[in-house]
Amino acid sequence: MTKPDLHSRHQHLLQQLALYLQEAEQILAAWDTYSDKHTGPEGWPHDEEAYGFRQAQRDADTWRSFNRIRSGASDLVATAEVQLQRLSGRTLNHRWAWQIGALRTAEERIGALQSDWLELRATLPPSVRPGVEEYDGPLAGRNAEAWHYLDEWSLHGQAVLDIHSALRHTQFRPATAPVAALPHRDSNPAKPRR
């Protein structure tokens, strides 16, 4: 890929990450509202089956939203790590390094869970398709196991956007302080007295 193509791809991934962060927040807010209404004071669900179904829906919706950046998540993290090394001083937030590390771990776990799912799916007979428990059960299991790591991305993904913005800000800032304007000189100054 040429440098402009890489830049364009990275910009696209950043846009998709911003969309994921927005959708993940909406999915979690809807889940919290549901959970608050359908659990007792001790946190136990009123109807465990309905609650489990709704939780599985939350997991699947979050996976589906993250899927738009899943293939580029490693690149987003790697680029943020490089950008982070170029930042210093007031532009550097000291939490960013930890957050990028959490994103890398989460991305690796999501990748491993996806690989496990694809290996299992390859062993299923052709008659086992979506809508059949032998297919849907393991898929829901992958989504449930991945949810924590997807949530890590929703919690810390903003750091990738913030690092990118901070680096852009430092690149566009003038290298030197602006020169103070010189006082206006009259084009016909009075001659000094002797």
Number of helical regions: 6
User: What is the residue-averaged pLDDT?
Assistant: 88
Cα-to-Cα separation, first versus last residue: 74 Å
| Percent in strands | under 5%
- What is the radius of gyration? 26 Å
Order of helices and strands: HHHHHH
Number of domains: 1
Low-pLDDT residue intervals, each spanning 5 or more residues: 173-194
Structural class: mainly alpha
Task: Describe the largest sheet.
Answer: none
Shape: globular
Summarize the structure.
Helix 1 (3-37) runs antiparallel to helix 2, helix 2 (48-70) packs across helix 5 and helix 4 (96-123) runs antiparallel to helix 5. With 194 residues, the protein is mostly helical. It has one domain.
What does this structure look like?
This protein is an all-alpha fold and 194 residues long. It has one domain. Helix content is 71%, strand content 0%. It is built from six helices and no strands. It has helices at residues 3-37, 48-70, 73-85, 96-123, 133-156, 158-172. Helix 1 (3-37) runs antiparallel to helix 2 (48-70), helix 1 (3-37) packs across helix 5 (133-156) and helix 3 (73-85) packs across helix 6. It is globular and about 55 Å long.
Index terms:
mainly alpha; globular; 194 residues; 6 helices; disordered C terminus
Secondary-structure blueprint:
Layout: H1 3-37, H2 48-70, H3 73-85, H4 96-123, H5 133-156, H6 158-172
Helix pairs in contact: 1-2, 1-5, 2-5, 3-4, 3-6, 4-5
